[in-house]
Amino acid sequence: MAKYTPIEMVKNYHGKICQHSDTYFQRRGKDKKVLCTGKMCNPRNLETNPYDASELARQAKFAQAAAAVKALTSEQKAAYKADWLKQDKYQFLSAFIMHKEYEKLV
């Protein structure tokens, strides 16, 4: 594991940092002031480790929730936004809506 000194643009790193993949940067949070980094390390090989039935069921449920999110009307989204502003757990409106729609399927 290498030791990194953060550059001025990045104040700190969190988690493991490896040397075999590129780092990506993105801004997160309600005000987009949080700069996050990430890496895709050791991707899954589906030929040697295919999905099992429970994973496929979760993927289908997630796809169903994502389709429900896309089908929301602007009034429904506005109602979700009003609820989202009252809570502190989810930083993103899209994550909050996805959580609520996924919760309906469980």
3D structure, described in words:
The protein is mostly helical. The chain is 41% helix and 9% strand. The model has no long low-confidence stretch (mean pLDDT 83).
| N-end to C-end Cα span | 40 Å
Which structural class matches the secondary elements? Answer: mainly alpha
Order of helices and strands: EEHHH
Q: Characterize the biggest β-sheet.
A: 2 strands, antiparallel
Shape: flat
Q: Helix tally? A: 3
Instruction: Please state the average pLDDT score.
Output: 83
Query: Roughly how much helix do the residues carry, as a percent range?
Result: 40-55%
Total strand count, please?
2
Q: Using only CA atoms, what is the Rg?
A: 18 Å
Strand order of the largest sheet: 1-2
Spans where pLDDT lies below 50 across 5 or more residues: none
Tell me the β content: 5-15%
What are the key terms here?
106 residues, 2 strands
Short description:
The protein is built from three helices and two strands, in the order ββααα.
Break the fold down into its secondary structure elements and pairings.
Layout: E1 24-28, E2 34-38, H1 53-70, H2 74-85, H3 93-105
Antiparallel strand pairs: 1-2
